Queue: 4 jobs
Job 1
Amino acid sequence: MYKSTAAELLAKALNKSAEETIKQIERPKQLQHGDYAFPCFALAKEKRQSPQCIAAELAAELSHEEFSAITAVGGYVNFTLDKKLAGSSVLKDILQQRAAYGNTAIGQGQTVTIDLSSPNIAKPFSMGHLRSTVIGNSISLLLEKQGYDVVRINHVGDWGTQFGKLICAYEKWGEEEKVRANTIPELLKLYVRFHEEAAQDEHLEQEGRDWFRKLEQGDAYANKLWRWFRDVSMEEFGRVYELMGVHFDSDAGEAFYNDKMERVVKELEQKNLLSLSEGAQVVRLDEFDLPPSLIKKKDGATLYATRDLAAAIYRKETYKFSKSLYVVGHEQSLHFQQLKLVLEKMGYAWSDGITHIPFGMVLQDGKKMSTRKGKLVLLDKVLEQAIQLAAANIAEKNPNLADKEEVARQVGVGAVLFHDLKHERIHDFEFSLEDMLRVEGETGPYVQYTHARASTLLSKGGKIQGGPEVDGETAAAAWPILSLLLQFPDAVNNAVINYDPSRIAKYVIDLAQAFNSYYGKVRILEEDEKIGARLKVVAAVASVLEEGLRLLGIRAPRQM
Ligand code: ARG
C-alpha cells in the first residue's frame, strides 16, 4: 500500500515503471529515518548528477497525504508515514480481520504437496525428523495463509533392506514380550545387534537380504512381522504428533509404492533411460556431472530412489500439484537433485515444481546427534521434560492458574518448537533445553508470556471504546509497534518465498520486544481519554502475536 504509493510517486517523477521502482525501495536501518528509503546511487550514473542532488530534487518535488515528510538524507529519499493515519488504518485492519490479517489469495486454486516428518519405523523419532516436522508444518500453515491447498504427506520410512535385517534379527534373538513392552528401543537393539553380529558372520547380511526379498515378494509371515513393526511404531510416533498438534493428510510411506514401481521401471526402460552398472539398473546422469540414480539392485530389489520416483508420479496424478515440496535434511540434497533430473529426463515438465527444502542439523556439543552412538536425545523425552519444567514454573509463579496442565503442555511444546524454528532453516544449531525454556531472551515462552501480558491488560481494561481513529500522540508513542504491525504481511510473504519460518519467529520476537518496551514506558490502563486508543494497540499486538505463533504451530495461552 504505502510502499506502492511511494513507488508510484517516484516512478512518475522519474518516468520509470512502478514495478521496477518498488523493488529498489528499502527499509531504513533506523526508525527515526522514516519508513521507506529510495537510494539514488544507480540514478546518479544515468543522470550524471550526484545522488545527493537527485535525492534533494525528488524530495522537494514529491508529496502525498500518506506521508508526513519526504526528505533527502545522504543520497536517499526517505519517506515518513503519517503516523496517525497509518496507525489508525493498520489497527482498524487488524481488529476487523483478526487472524485473517496478512492473508492473501496468491495461492488460490493451486495445490502444494509437502513431504514432511517421514521418520523411519522401528527407530526412534530423531531430532532431524523433529526439524522436518516442525518446519514442514509451519510452511504448510504459511502456504494455507496464502490460499494454497496443502496436502501434508508423511512419507514414512517403512521399506527397504533394513527391514529384512530386522526380521532376521527378530527371528534369531527377538522376544515378543519385550518388544511389546518397550517397542522402539527393543527393535533398535535388535537392529544394532544384527550389525554387530554381521561384522563377525558374513552369512548374516545375505540372510537379511533374503528376508527382504521374501518381504517384497509378499511372503505372509514376513509381512505379518513387518505390519506389526509398522503399527507399533506409528502408534508411538502418533503420540508425538498429538503432543505437537501436527496432522497429516496421508501417511502413505515407502511401502505404499510397492505395487507402483514396476510401472515406473517399465517406463524408464521404454524411454531408454536404464543402463546396467555392475549388474544394477541405473539412470545415468553423467551430463549433469552427477552419479547415476540407482533404480534396481543386482538381486532385483528396489531402492529408496525407486520409491521416491513412483511417489512423485503418484502425487502428481493424485493431487495435480503445482508444487511438490520435500522438507528433508541437507544430507539428502543429491538424492533430490537426482530425483528431479530423472523425472525431467522422463519428459515430465512438472518436475520443475519439485523442490527440496533442506535444513541444518541439531548439534550436541558441536556434533550431530546420532542414533548409532547412543548419544541420541529422544524426542518424546525432550517434550516430556520441557512440559515438566513448564509445569514446575507455573507451580512456582502462578499456582492458581486455571487449566494448568494444558498451559504447561502449550508452553513446553512451544518452547521446543520455537527453539527449532527461530534458527535460519539452513543453519545447524546447538540443542539446549535450558535455552528453550527461558522466559527472557529469544524464546517461545517469552513470546507467549508477552501475549499473555497483553491479554491480561485487555481483560483488565474492559471493552475498547472510541471510534476508528487513533490520536497522533498515541500513534507516535506506539510507532515502533505500529510499524511492525504494518510489516506483518511482508513477514508472511518473505517466510513463504524463502520457505523459512524463522522469518516469522524473528518477527514475533521483534514485536514482543517492541511491546514490552512500550509497556515499560507507557501507563496503558491510565483512565484518560486515550485509554481506548492504547487498548487498541494492545489488542492488535495480542492478535498478531497469536497469529504469528499459530503459523509456527505454537499455541498462545491467555494466561500463564
Ligand atoms: N525416511 C527418510 C529418512 O529419515 C526421509 C524421507 C524423506 N522423504 C522422501 N520422500 N524421501 O531419512
Job 2
Amino acid sequence: MRSVDDLIAEGVSGRRVLLRADLNVPLDKSTGAITDDGRIRASLPTLQALRDAGARVIVAAHLGRPKGTPDPQFSLAPVAARLGELLGTAVPLAADVAGDDARAKAAALGEGDVLLLENVRFEAAETSKDDAERGELADRLAALADLYVDDAFGAVHRKHASVFDVAERLPHAAGRLVARELEVLTRLTQDPDRPYVVVLGGSKVSDKLAVIEALLPKVDRLLVGGGMCFTFLAAQGHGVGGSLLEADQVDTCRRLLAEAGDRIVLPVDVIAATAFSADAETSVVPVEEIPDGRMGLDVGPRTVELFGATLGDARTVFWNGPMGVFELAPFQAGTRGVAQAVGAVDGLSVVGGGDSAAAVRVLGLDEDAYGHISTGGGASLEYLEGRQLPGLAVLAGRAGE
Ligand code: ADP
Ligand code: MG
C-alpha cells in the first residue's frame, strides 16, 4: 500500500489531490455547533503535508446520515469554518459534491489551497449498492483531481463511491492517519504483548458480538461494561430491572460465558437510576440486586476498582465503548475511572470508537496517556473481526500508476 508520503516524495506540487477525510464530527442538536473536533484535528497532518508540498487539495467527507439529498442540517459548513481556523487559511465550501460549483472552485485552487466539497452523502449514489450508480459519482469525483488519498479511516469499512470506487479511478495512496491506524491494529492482532486485555462497553451487545467472538481466543481478559453488560448479567441469571437488555442475545452471551470461563469479567455493581435522566434518583447496587423499577446507567465504584486491578499488569489494551451513559454527569464516573486505568497501562493502550474517543476528550482526560485513539469505531471493530475492509483492499490492490 502506498502512502501519502510516497506520493509527496514523487512530487505533488501543483497537482490536484482528492483527499477523503473523516470529518464526521458530533454537532450540538440545538445550536449546530461542533461539540468535539477530534476528527478534524486528526485529519490535519495529512492535509498539512499535502499543502506544504504544494498540492491543490480537494477534501471529500460526509457528515451524519442525510437521506441522499441536500439537507442543510447536515451541511459541512461548520466543518469548513473549523478546518479553516485550525489550518489558518480560508477553506471554501463547494455548494455541491461534484457538480458545477465543485468543478469551478476546484479549478480556481492555487498551490497549497484547500477546498471542501459538500457532504458526499447529499448524493444518493455515495452509499448505493449499485456499482453503476456509485461509479457515475466516482467518475465525477475523480474528474476533479489527479491523485486520490484516503485518510478517512472511519469510513474504510464502507464500499462507498468516495471511499472505494474513486480509488479505482485515480492513482491512490493511504493518508497518515490510515497508515497509523493500520500499524496499531496490526499490533493488536499479531502477537500482542501479554497480558492482553480488551475492555468493551457501549450500548448494544449485538453490535459487538462479532468482535467478542473474534477476540476471545486471543485475549487474556475481556472486561464488559456499558449497556451491553446487562445482557451478559441476564445470561448469568440476574434480574436487570429496566436496564438495556437484548433478550434475543441472552443465549449467545450464555454460550460465550461458558466458553470463556473466567476470562470474561463482568461488573459487580452498577449505578441504578429511576429514569434515563441527569435528574434521576440513583443508588449504587450490587448486580445481584438491581431493583425492578431501575435501570443501570453506569458501572459502580467496586467495578471500577476491579477493572482497574485487572488492567494493572496488562501490556496491551484495546478499549471500545463507554462504561456508562457518560453524556449525563451522574453516569460518568465509571467511564472516567476505567479510561484512567486504560491510560495508566504500561504498554500499548488503544481507544477505539467514536463515543469512547469523545468520552476521553469530554471528560477532560489526557489524550497523550493513550498509545493511540482511533477515529474509526466500526472500522476498527471490523478489522479486529478479521473482515476485509473495502477501502483498505482497494488501496492495497492497485498501486497508483
Ligand atoms: P463507541 O462509539 O465508542 O463504539 P457505542 O456507540 O457502542 O460506543 O456506545 C456508546 C453509547 O453507549 C453512549 O451513547 C452511551 O450513552 C451508551 N451507554 C453506555 N452505557 C450505557 C447503559 N448502561 N445504558 C444505556 N446506554 C449506555
Ligand atoms: Mg458510537
Job 3
Amino acid sequence: MRTQVGIIGSGPSGLLLSQLLHLEGIDSVILERRTQDYVLGRIRAGVLEQGMVDMLRKAGVAERLEKEGLVHEGLSICFGDRRQRIDLKKHTGKVVTVYGQTEVTKDLIDAREAAGGTLIYEAENVQIEDLDSDTPALTFLKDGKQQRLTCDFIAGCDGFRGVSRRYIPEDKLKIHERVYPFGWLGILSETRPVSDELIYVNHWRGFALCSMRSPTRSRYYIQCAYDEDLEEWTDDRFWDELRIRLPSAAAESIEMGPSIEKSIAPLRSFIAEPMRHRHLFLAGDAAHIVPPTGAKGLNLAASDIYYLSRALTAYYKDDSRTDHMDSYSRDCLKRIWKAERFSWWMTTMLHKFPDQSSFDRGMQLAELDYLFDSEAAQASLAENYVGLPY
Ligand code: PHB
C-alpha cells in the first residue's frame, strides 16, 4: 500500500488532519489500534474554542455542531461563599461551544467514510520503518496478515500512550512533566444540568466542576485521590460528595439520576519537544498533556492540526515548500506552552493539595481573592479560556 500521509490514531487529531488533507486533494490513510465502537465509546472533553469550531467548519463537519452545540458566554468560579461569573464575551468578544469530543469524532468519521477515506481499525503492532529515508513506512498486523504502508510523511496522532513518540531518538527528545497528586472522578448522567454555564469550585474538601453535554445530559467531576478505587464510588456517594462541595443554591436544585458513565482520570502536565523528527510529526496528546482544568487538551490538538495541515498543504501545493514544516514544532510549542501555563495555573488555584504549606495556601487564597476583585485578572482568565490566537 502507498499513501502520501500515513496517520497513526483515529482520534480527533488524526481524523481532522485526514479530512483537511482530503479537501486539498492530498491522500492519507489512518491506522487505529482499537475498534470504532471503542473510539466512539470514550467520554472525553466538551469545551471547544472558536478556533477549533472554525477548523471544523473549514473541514466541512460543523453542521450538527452548529445545531446542537451550546454557546457559552461565561462561566463561574466559586470559593467559600463567593461566586464570581467570568464574562468571556464581555472581556474578549468571544465565546466557547460545549459539544462533546465523542460527537466531534462521530462527525469526522462520518465525513471520512462519506468521502471514501481509508480508516483501518484493529491495526495491531503498528511500527514506523525507514524514518530516515524519503519513503518511510508504517507496518502493522491486520487480520493476522503483516502489511506495509509506504508514505511520504507520518503523523503521530496516537495519544499519550501511543508508539509514535518513541521514534524520536532519545538524545533529541526533551520531556517536561508534572504529575499532580490527585485525580478527577467524573460521571455522565441523563439529567438537566444544574446551571446553564460551567461552575468551577474550590472547596476545602477538594475541587468540583459542573459541566454538561446537552440540555438533558450533565457531566460532573470531583477531585479524588489519584489511586482512588472506582468500585467504592456508588452514584449516591458521588452525588452526596458533589453536593457538599457546591454552593448551597446549586446543591439544593441539582437534579440527580443514575450515572451512564463513571471514570477516574489522573492529572498531568507533559510536553515532549521537538514535535518533529525527519518525516514524523507528532500532534495532540502524543506530544503534550494538560490537566483538564483549563479545558485545553482537545483544543491544543486542533491547533497542532492547523499547523500540520498548513505545512503538508504548502509542501504538496506549493512546489515542495518546506518552511512551514521546518517551523512546525516551534509554531505548535509557542501556543502549547501558554496553554500549559494556563492549565497549570487553573489547577493550582482550584485544587486541594495534600501537604500544602501555609505559604502555598496563602498564595492560593491571594490568587482567588485577586481574581474575584480584579477585572484585569478576570479578563486574563477569559482571554486564555476562549483560546489564544493560532
Ligand atoms: C467537560 O465537560 O468534560 C469539561 C469541561 C470543562 C473542563 C474540563 C472538562 O475544564
Job 4
Amino acid sequence: MLVVQKYGGTSVGDLDRIGNVAKRVAKTKFKGNSVVVVVSAMSGETNKLTEYAHHFSKNPSKREMDILLSSGERVTASLLAIALHEMGLEAVAMTGRQAGIKTNDTHTFARIESINTDAMSKELDDGKIVIVAGFQGINRHGRVTTLGRGGSDLSAVAIAGALGADACEIYSDVDGIYTTDPRVEPRAKKLDYISYDEMLELSSLGAKVLQSRSVELAKKMGVKIIAKSSFSDNEGTTIGEEREDMEEVLVSGIALDKNQARVSLRGVSDRPGVAADIFNILAKEQINVDMIIQNASAEGSTMLGFTVPESELEHTQEIISGLEHDIEGAEFDKGICKVSVVGVGMKSHSGVASATFTALADAGINIEMISTSEIKISVVVDEKFAELSVRVLHEAYQLDK
Ligand code: ADP
Ligand code: ASP
Ligand code: MG
C-alpha cells in the first residue's frame, strides 16, 4: 500500500513529539507500506514567524512572508528525517519545490496547480520514506508560495491524489471529526463517517480540524481522508462520498467561527447598482464577504449589513471609507460570531430552520443575521453567546445520543 500521512502542528509540537511521529511512521513502513509523510511546522511556529514580520512592518511583503513562513515546515521535515535515520530507516526530506508542487501566483494563499511526482516516486522506488514540508510550493517564477493557514492538509490531499495513494491519513490532537469542537462541547460525539459536502461546510464555517480547501480537493480528486489522532490508536473518521442512508440523519454537526466581524452600512443610496459597486470593490480586493442582509428602503436609502473575516476588517474599513458619496455611515463590530448547523438530511427534511431559531430563542439568545444553503443554516449572534449557542444546538439536535 502507498500511504500518505500528515502530522499537524501539535503532533510535531516538540522534539519528543517528533520522535513519537518517527515511531509511528516507522511502524507503518515496517508493515510493508510505501510512506509519504507531510508535516506542519511545530505548533505556534507559523504565528511566531508572522509576529516577527509584524515587528518590522504592519503590511509585510507577501512574497517575503512566504519565504519566511515556509521555513517552519522545513524544520520539522528535516528533523523527522534525521530521527528516522537514527532508527535505521532511509528517509529523505523535501521542500515543496523539491516535491514538485506547482502553485499559482497568489502569495500566502496560493492554489496548487499541478504536482510533478517524479522526484517523490524515485525516492519511493528506492525504498525511502519521503517527508515533504507541507503548506508550500513554487509558482511559475520559481518563487516560494504558501497555501493559506492549515495548508499542510491541502499538501497531503494533493500529494495523495497525485500519487494515487491508497490512504490519506491526517493526524492531529483529536481522534476524528466530532459533532462539534470537543473543546467547546465535551459531550460532542465522534463520527465514523462524514460526507465531503458536510465536512466542507463544517470546515469553511469554522471547524479548523481540516482546511476547507483540502476537503474541496479531496472531493474533486476522490481522495478518501481518514482523520486520526497521533496520540492514540483509536479508529478515526472517514471523509468520503455521500452514502444513501445519510439523508436519514438530519444534522451531522455544528461549527463555530469566532473570527468574523460585521460591517453595517447606513444610508446606502437606494438605486440599482449600488450594492454591485460596493461588493465589486470588496471582491477586487479579495475580501471574503458572507451573510449579506439588506433591509427595506426608507426615504431613498437602505441599510446594508455583511460579515467579513476579522483579519480582513481593517482592510475593509479602508475600502469603505473611500465610498463616502454612496453611504452615510458605517459601523464595524468584532464582537460577533457565526454558529452553523450542517447536515445532508436538511435536503429532504423541513423544519430545521425553525427548530434552530426556537432552540436559540428558548435560551435567550438573539439572532442578528441568518443565512441558509441546501445543507446548512448559519446564524450570527453576540460573541458572548458563542459557546452557549453551540451547546444549546448540540442538545436540541440530540447530537450526544
Ligand atoms: P493540526 O494542528 O494538527 O492541523 P488543528 O488544530 O488544525 O490540528 O485541528 C484540530 C482541532 O480542531 C482540535 O483540537 C479541535 O479543537 C478542533 N475542532 C474544531 N471542530 C472540530 C470537530 N468538529 N471535530 C474535531 N475537532 C474539531
Ligand atoms: N503551519 C501552517 C499553519 O499553521 C500550515 C499548517 O500547519 O497546516 O497554518
Ligand atoms: Mg490544521
